[in-house]
Amino acid sequence: NGTIIWQRSLGSGWAATTPVVYDNVVVAGSGDGQMKGINFNNGTVLWTHKSGKAIFGVSPYDRDNNALLSSPTIVQDKVFFGSADGHLYCLDLYSGSVLWSYDFGVPVLSTPLVTGNALFVGTYDGRLYAFTTDADYFVPDENDVDIDGMADSWELEYFSSLTNMNKRTDSDND
User: Fold this and answer.
1) 84's torsion region: left (phi>0), alpha (psi -120 to 50) or beta?
2) Is residue 15 predicted with pLDDT exceeding 80?
3) Res. 169: pLDDT tops 50
4) Which residues, in sequence order, are bridge partners of residue 117?
5) Given a cut of 80, is residue 148 above it in pLDDT?
C-alpha cells in the first residue's frame, strides 16, 4: 500500500548509487564516500565502509571530493564497488570488512558487472578491466607479467592497453 516501513540516512548530501539487496542485507552508497550494509527488515546499519578522498573532483555535487558514484554489485557474500578514490573494493557482505581492493590510479565510477566467473569494471580513463576466479579463463603467453597482491579468489586477468604496470596484460592491446 506504499507505507514506509523504515528510512535511513546514508550520509551527508546526496546519493547517486542504486541500492542492492541480498540475503536480507541492503547495500547502498552515499555521495560522501560511504557504502553501508543495512538490515532489510528494520533499517539498522550493520556496517559502514568509508572510501578515501577522490583522486580529483568528479562530481559537481560533492565539495569534499568523497563521491561514491558506483553502485554496488553483490555476488554470494561479497560486495563489489568502485570509488572516486581509484579503488575497486571487495567487501564481506555481512561484516563490511575489506577482503581486497585494487588501486587503478583513476576514479572508478561505473558499477561492476559479474557474469559467470568474470567481473568487469570501467574506469574514468576509458578502460575496461576484467577479473576472474578461473585460472583457465585466460591463457597466458610469454609476454604476460605475473600479478601480485590480488586475492586468490579474484585475480586480474586482462587489462586493455596498459603498460609499465605489474599486471598481466593482453599482448595484442585490444
Assistant:
1) alpha
2) no
3) no
4) none
5) no
pTM: 0.75
Answer positive or negative: Cα dihedral of 164, 170, 172, 174.
negative
Band of pLDDT at residue 168, cut at 50, 70 and 90: very low
Give one DSSP letter per residue of 113-139, joined into a string: EEETTEEEEE-TTS-EEEEES-GGGS-
Burial of 94 (0-12, 13-18, 19+ CB in 10 A): middle
**Count of alpha carbons within 13 angstroms of residue 117, beta-carbon side:** 12
Q: Which residues, other chains included, contact 155 with Cβ-Cβ below 8 Å and sequence gap of 6+?
A: 131, 132, 133, 135, 147
Q: What is the percentage of the chain residues whose pLDDT exceeds 90? A: 36
Three-class secondary structure of residue 46 per DSSP: strand
Q: What is the pLDDT of residue 88?
A: 92
- Per the document, the length of the chain is 174
Q: Which three cell numbers stand for residue 59?
A: 562530481
Q: Are strands 25-29 and 78-82 parallel, antiparallel or unpaired?
A: unpaired
Please identify which residue in the block is written with the cell numbers 591463457.
Answer: 139
In the 8-state DSSP scheme, what is residue 32?
Answer: T
Cα–Cα dist 107/138, whole Å: 26
| More confident: 133 or 88 | 88
46: number of Cβ within 10 Å: 17
